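Moderator note: this is an archived Q&A kept for reference. The question asked for a predicted structure of one protein chain; the sequence and the answer are reproduced below.
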Amino acid sequence: MKKLLKEFKEFAMRGNVVDMAVGVVIGAAFGKVVTALIEIFLNPILEALPKLENGGTGIAGSLISFLAVVVEFLLTALVLFAIIKAMNAAKKVGKKPEAPAAPTTKKCPYCLSEIDIKATRCPHCTSVIEGK
């Protein structure tokens, strides 16, 4: 049982799981902000448009509801994109580019095969390779 709890703790504390949980919570909260924005500002504008039939019922009412949902989705996606782009840019600011790793292989001057950098004889053509 202790091993299971330990494994669960390691799983739950991984960076990706915690980041995802934070993202879900922030996304839900931001969704409420966008919904309020739509209901307070956009719906009155859409409802003020000329009605298509019988005082705005039927097609016009459905169209207004659909447009409100589409605009809510687009605004949410746009702001989340901007937030993620800013976070990725902030991660890159403090990082220095990694130095390239030292080579571990070289080419045999006789058969042009890849061989270990410390090799003194080519395993493919058996030529003796002078140290360079």
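Archived answer notes: The chain has a mean pLDDT of 78.
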